[in-house]
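Batch 3, record 17
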Amino acid sequence: MKVVGQGLPRVEILEKVTGESVFGADVRLAAPILIGKILGSPHAHARIKSIDARKAERLPGVKAVVTAQDLPPVKYGRFVRDEEYFAHKKVRLVGDKIAAVAAIDEETAEEAIKLIKVEYEVLPHFTDGVEAMREGAALIHEEYDQYQALSMVEGRKGNICYHKQTVQGDTNRGFQEAERIFEHSFYAPMVHQTYIEPHAVLARVDASGKATVWVPTQAQFFIRASIAEIFQLPLIKVRVIPTEIGGGFGGKMLPTIEPAAVALARKSGMAVQIVMSRAEDFQVANPRTPCHLRYKTGVKLDGTIMAREVELVFGTGAYCGNGLVICQRAEMLASGPYRIPNVKIDLFCAYTNHANCGPYRAPSGPQISFASESQIDIIARELNLDPVEMRLKNAIEEGDTTPACGGPLKSVHAKETLLKAAEAAGWKERRREKNRGRGIALGYWLVGGMASSAGVKLNEDGTATVMTGVIDLSGTVTSLGQIVAEVLGVELDDVHVRTADSDFAPHSTISAGSQALRSMGSATKWAAEEVKKQIMEVAADKLEAEVSDLVVEGKRVYVKGSPERGLSLGQVGQLSLTHKRGPIVSIQSVSIFPNQPAISAHVTDVEVNPETGAVKVLRYVAAQDVGTAINPLSVMGQVQGAVIQGLGQALTEECIFQNGRMINPTFLDYKIFSSLDAPRVEVHLVEHAAEDGPFGAKGIGEPSIIPVPAAVANAVYDAVGVRISDLPLTAEKILMAIQEKNKSG
Amino acid sequence: MKGIDYFAPPRLEEAVSLLRRYGKKAALMAGGTDFLLRLERGLVQPGVIVDLKKIRDLRGIKSNRAGLKIGAATLMDEIASSHLIQTRYGILAKGAAAVGSIQTRNRATLGGNLCNASPAADTASPLIALGGRARIAGAKRVREVPLEEFFLGPGKSCLQPNEILKEIFIPSPVQRSAGSFQRCTRTAMDIALVNCAVFLSLASKGGVVQDIRIVLGAVAPTPVRVQAAEDVLRGKNPDEKTIEEAADCAAAGVRPIDDVRSSASYRRAMVRVLTKRAIEEALREAGGEA
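Prediction for the assembled complex:
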């Protein structure tokens, strides 16, 4: 392969580094733009007694005020229809939307917000899932029984919006057969995606009633569908124009401020922009679900896992939103990348009075791996087994299944990935040093694939244009260009790919779940292959040759064995316009893909300061099974980024709540890893072309965030002998644990 | 943020007379790295902003035999990267280098860091340890205040409404003196959970501590000197036990709070650790034996 497999720079890089790229808040129109602001609830849970917005409407400079009365009375939600866009009876989180205003400038809009008077009757609130699930807890949704929901939503009761039990084999028997049984509890708090660009939107509604929305999103077709549903419009009356996006990590798929901007634009007749502040984004956007995890594992003395029972309690937030995506994922991942005959998984998803939690890079993955892989480490130590050997003994192989994975797994390289990480880190040759430790952990992830379509057209000069609506978060369009260039025998520079909007792009999958390239890359590859066929057809007529005798290569099509008997692709492009088949173009579709394991294995060395508890990450080795790396530069960047994001979750990140309000909604006190904290991440790719996916590529964006907290926790234990079971592993927690340990001898 | 008048006078006298004219409506700004955030969040609502950046007399580092003068509007990065400060007043250079990011340090000023009167200010502890004095310009005269008396509480300094911090004076260090600046944070770029500055001098021979100042940040409403801990060491040739005693004394002498960044008990524990480290390092640097 000539273009696929090359580490090429991203195609839009010049626009990015010169500042030309237009992000959410950069969009400008010829017409004036109003500034919109949203009034959010100050209470985590309260009944609304009255809303009076008259004073705000009368403030000079205010062009529109909207409340629930301005929208159709629609309850919406992807899994459970439990959400109304503006609250009018109850508020269920701090920041729950009550009204929005549009004014000529930000100051006026802020002043108007303050003039809206709302009377509340404050109710008891819960920011923890276990507390919300207690018998007799105040209900967050009294009418829950009447809500419409997808049929998969089972086990509804009280504040539990979803409970599912999954059983494989017989865990009672498995525990009887086991020689040792281990039980541990863990906790992973809410963390936020901390994309560099907070949510932003610009909306206008034209004379025909059509809404146009400029928004940085990972899922333009989700946003279009949600707006159409909320405003009860046909899809052709909503146009979503995706801007460049400053990171998403799963947090930019469902609407947050977009419907408010549309409602204000409709009422004012003007364009309206809303840009969230960082604090608002922290408080109300869709963070990672906090989770209580209980693991009970039965093993033979040789380390063979006989049975595993897992109980997970997710506090999903005030509305279901995308929350059940996390549960669906958790069901697949909870028992780990292991061959276990007897498994029982209990998943609880509870309403809580904070932001709707949603997908965040590998939803449920880091929480589960932290618990599961910490416990595997504990067991290995107890049984005097090498942690690598223990994992090798149980790791899945080709054709194995894990709960809810959807059938025998193909392209499984768990053991090779594990061994690659161990070998690269010098697992066996380590030297013990005081207060230094080494930890290993496996990450289990399954990559699916969603319905997608893409088009390729050959231009009259032999260049090609890709028509796609896929959002480029992490180099996707560059990889699409490489795929097309490879198929058509041209260079990446001869292919143009940029994201088109929802009116002009064929339906695109979301850029999430590590499947954008797998799905969209496949559709694009098929379209390119169809274009190649058409090129050969047109050329065959002109060259008076059989299609089967033609070769497409080096920007030319020629007769096999006689390269001089050929045409440039430009000539073919020109010819096609007068050829009986007409212009060369193809749109192809793909449907749902089966799940495919994408395993990551990490080894880290840390040093713990025994006086302060501070952890220094000395070295980080990450191996990942990626199938074929279409663009190894992008893949390495994804792995490194995921590790560094994961280190923040392991060591410093946490949304802290007081009275239902997040009290650290700034980067001063929500501490992410910066370049000063990050170690060099050594990346090792395991490359075997996978069963499906373009050129055998697997999904790569998420897997490497999964094992990080566990790898670090295991390394900390190895260094100073303390086991921290709730994230993050702050210096303070570690110091307390060390002191406790010293006290008890 | 509507209707704020903005002045950027070129001379200190003009700035003082603007303060006199506008009284409480006026707010002073230098680098703006803290001020503009407070303005944006509505924590300050001035009618007039007096920007001090254009005043040349407020900028620069000057040294003579008596000591060092640093203009209040001197940039943090100028202080952190000054060879003179690094070699003769090293703990101040370290404190300045700890403030924010490189971008922040290229805007933020020493005077701004001090006048904010944050108990966690990373230049305050070193300056108090070095015996620094604030020179404050008022309408009629310039008065001088030891920096340890400059801070009154979180966000509160001894500046009167019509006064401007003009410069900081630090006396020349005596022979056989040295210091140490230590801090404890959550990540590399962070506000200090605790900071500690020690500056000490040794008697002409041997390891007897002649004088010492131990200053702690972020563990009380203002940066604090812990004199009881200093007394443990003064006049002694400290061994490990004495140093630990002093560190315990420091930990007992502070009033940290629980907040989103840290618990009070962790802060207290860190006071002990940082004080011990700082004393040990300062003794080593001064030529004594730790």
